[in-house]
Amino acid sequence: MRPKTLPAAIAPVVVASALAWHDGCFNFAAATLCLLFGVLIQIGTNFANDYYDFIKGADTANRVGPTRAVATGLVTPAAMHRAMLLVLITAFLLGLTLIYWGGPWLILIGILSVVCAVAYTGGPYPLGYNGLGDLFVFLFFGLVAVGATYYVQAGTITPDAVALAVPIGLLAANILLVNNYRDVETDRVAGKRTTVVRFGQAYARVQFTVTLLIAFGVLITRNLLGGSAWELLPLLLAPMAWRQRGRLQHSKTPSELIRLLGDTGKLLALYALLLSLGLILSPS
């Protein structure tokens, strides 16, 4: 299930729901269903990744990252495939309940979410194997997740929802970036052309840094345009973020990057919590 990656699914729902609270349209039932849907899609994606990376030869005995269930024989490929289907079907069926608040167009979001969960590492043109993983994460764990969660509660999409989706999506993409940075050599051998494989680790460090600057820059820009000072609470995390940038540059062992991966997820979680708190405390 890869718990260290789950903040990517939880953070957008928390931030969108906090914005809905600030705007006077928070709906506990809809927010809870969005959270369950997002977490199940993330787990289903992780199961699919475990299965397809083994099938395609990206996860082997030479892997330097955390243990993968299929590659190490803890779970058979057939069992993992069944688990993936079960989780993604459950997520889709659960997501259908959101039609009550958001309308039938949400079926399209559900279908795309399930398809992309599989297509990230499976199918004829796997996104993660063709350098599109970062974009996929930004779109689905940023714009789509924040936008859809806010929409089912507010009945509309506002500029605030779009603006706050940007840093959430970018910080989620940084989790993937660190993972791919660690696996660059084995991914290259397996033909998995992630952005790190295609453009190099120096490029990845620049992308990581720019992402952090944008994530915190959005908050400052909103404040300069008249936003509440409470929304600046995530700036307390700037030293932590800058240390992570240095750790990415100077890490020399897989274990260091594994720890950084977990801490990148923590940064997203803390950013989302502080931003949500700031939204709730901000005057309407």
Keywords for this entry:
mainly alpha
Distance between the termini: 38 Å
Beta-strand proportion = under 5%
What is the N-to-C succession of helices and strands? HHHHHHHHHHHH
The dominant shape is: globular
Largest sheet: none
Number of strands: 0
Q: Could you list the spans in which at least 5 consecutive residues all have pLDDT below 50?
A: none
The value of Rg in angstroms is 19 Å
How many DSSP helices? 12
Structural class: mainly alpha
Outline the structure in words.
It contains twelve helices and no strands. The longest helix has 28 residues, at 28-55. Helices cover 72% and strands 0% of the residues. The chain has helices at 7-22, 28-55, 77-96, 99-102, 106-119, 133-154, 159-182, 184-190, 195-199, 201-224, 238-250, 254-281. It has one domain. The chain is globular.
Detail the topology: elements first, then pairings.
Blueprint (H helix, E strand, L loop, with lengths): L6 H16 L5 H28 L21 H20 L2 H4 L3 H14 L13 H22 L4 H24 L1 H7 L4 H5 L1 H24 L13 H13 L3 H28 L3
